Amino acid sequence: MAHRVDNEYDYLFKIVLIGDSGVGKSNILSRFTRNEFFLESKSTIGVEFATRTLQIDGKTIKAQIWDTAGQERYRAITSAYYRGAVGALLVYDITKRQTFDNVQRWLRELRDHADANIVVMMIGNKSDLNHLRSVPEEDGQAFSEKEGLSFLETSALEAINVEKAFQTVLSEIHQIVSKKALAAQESASTNGRSMQGTTINVAEAPTNTKGSCCSS
Amino acid sequence: MILCRKDYLLLRKHCLRKSVYSNEDRKQSNKTDGANHAESVSSEKGEDTVSPVGFEVPDNPSVEVEEHLISEDGNPCVRSGEEMQDDTSKTSPEMLMDGNQSSSSSSNKEESDNSVLTHEEMPHKDATSVQQPSTEDEQESIPRYSSAGGNMENDSELSKDARPVKSSRTVEDFETWQRIIRLDAVRANDEWVSYSTSQAAVSREKAIESAKAVCLKDYEHLEPHRIHHASRLVAILEAYAIYDPEIGYCQGMSDLLAPLLAVLEDDNEAFWCFAGFMRKARHNFRLDEVGIRRQLNMVSKIIKHKDFHLYRHLEMLQAEDCFFVYRMVVVMFRRELTFEQTLSLWEVMWADQAANRAGITKSSFEKLRLGAPPTDDLLLYAIAASVLQKRKLIIESYSSMDEIIRECNSMSGQLNIWKLLDDAHDLVVTLHDRIE
């Protein structure tokens, strides 16, 4: 089958980029996947995505990153794309306080529509505009600690911390997956059931309890 | 015409008066001035029903600026602009009372409506004349023009702490629209420059003046012509958000307006032209997604009837809802086509819609052997055609909807508009009986 051709990776992780309009989600994506930046990138209509394959902890990981429209109006459409996502980058703009204040709402959005175990990283973007800053880094730090999120300030324009942000999220996801796979193997061997090799999609594991056979 | 201008200027004044955004800006950027301005705004509170003549808006240079923008342009698109303006004339109270007749009304009716409109003063409109566009009426409908007046009454409360408590999926307010409009305006590109040499050559002073008139900020990095363009986008989109509060502003609308601005140098003309354009396009931006669903469904039907093999493949990938053409539908191919291609496609599309309105029926078209009969949905046939052009690739190489989305999103710059229209017309000829 055709889809085997593109299968040269150990894991495929789906990540969503969310946050208010104009915080720089699309540029974070283009910086990470193509090393490009456009000062005048247009607003995202609906969803777009790009992929990049990289090595994390000795494994080949294909990151499929979904970039979503920031405007509330599009949320009904974009939230459909949270399904199956194992990671989320929640982006705000350090020069626009309101985009930081809205982070709470985006978290609620994730709670409502994404998998409960999704790995979330909060990102304060546009750190190159330090002279216009209206959200102190400590505020971001404190909030993320309170909510149990990882946190980084990035600059898509100057390519600062973008790579690190994705690496961190992907690595965290990979660790969870490895643990789960291990646990699954152990339980499989103790239960004497045969299991599939690798779990491609962590998020679906808990929701995807293909039910009845496992209940006994 | 002149009185239409009055309506537009009135909308602009309302934008400035209810502009929480600009008040905040002023307070931030100039504290002493900010207090004065806030005071003047609050003193205007309750004056919403003042007649246009009696209007006095302090600190408001917009009227002056807009008058400067008036030009005797003889550009080729004026005609379509006038046609559209006729359309907007249907926003008269009679038509509002009688919702669904827009496409069948005669030209006589339109003329008389036009004169009705010119006597309208929007804020005076009685709320009882409001007819909500019904959810089924998706083709073309009239914005709740008069309700804008009603809304304005509450503006000052809405913009303060009296705002209703909102659920997690909120209804956006004017302030939010203003913020996003500005965001989109300053990042609009300048593909249009070759279409309007006068706008391309605007002086820095004039550009800054127009930016100030709409309280635009964050434009320092832009060249004068782009500042000017961004300011016009803000002025018209804000006015539209007041004019059609059910839709307000949704990202993508600036994509639809930008080409009109390039060919219409007068803000008033551009506004009414845009309002006419939006009568159909507004359904793309509705919160309930009815308009989008209908159109995606139609693209799906076209593909199903034309190419069942491809359709089966899409079904297999659970992509038969054609969600992958979402962006093409919402902004009418604007993102996939160059500026010039967009103008060509839209003009062909509008010509078809105008022919439909003029009552050129399909049977008479066939009798005359004129090829494809006019359709209101040429765009959707063109979108389906663009997908069908990739059928081989989709069937042979793509095994998930993700890949098709990526394919569609990367069509930018790849399309041959004339081939696309030929294909679309072929589809119309063979399928319109079964689809529409």
UniProtKB/TrEMBL annotation, chain A:
Subcellular localization, as worded in the UniProt entry: Endomembrane system
> GO molecular function of the protein, one example?
GTPase activity
Among CDD domains, the record links this protein to:
Rab11_like
Describe its membrane topology: Lipid-anchor
Q: Where does it sit, as one GO cellular component term?
A: endomembrane system
**Keyword GTP-binding recorded:** yes
Q: Which UniProt keywords apply?
A: GTP-binding, Lipoprotein, Membrane, Nucleotide-binding, Prenylation
For this chain, the family text in UniProt reads:
Belongs to the small GTPase superfamily. Rab family.
Name-wise, this protein is Ras-related protein Rab11C
What lineage is on file? Eukaryota, Viridiplantae, Streptophyta, Embryophyta, Tracheophyta
TrEMBL record, chain B:
Name a GO molecular-function annotation.
GTPase activator activity
Instruction: Give every Rab-GAP TBC domain span.
Output: 164-353
InterPro entries named among the record's database cross-references: Rab-GAP-TBC_dom
Give the highest taxon in the source lineage.
Answer: Eukaryota
UniProt-annotated stretches for the region Disordered: 20-169
Bias (Basic and acidic residues):
23-48, 108-127, 157-169
Q: Please report the name of this protein according to its UniProt entry.
A: Rab-GAP TBC domain-containing protein
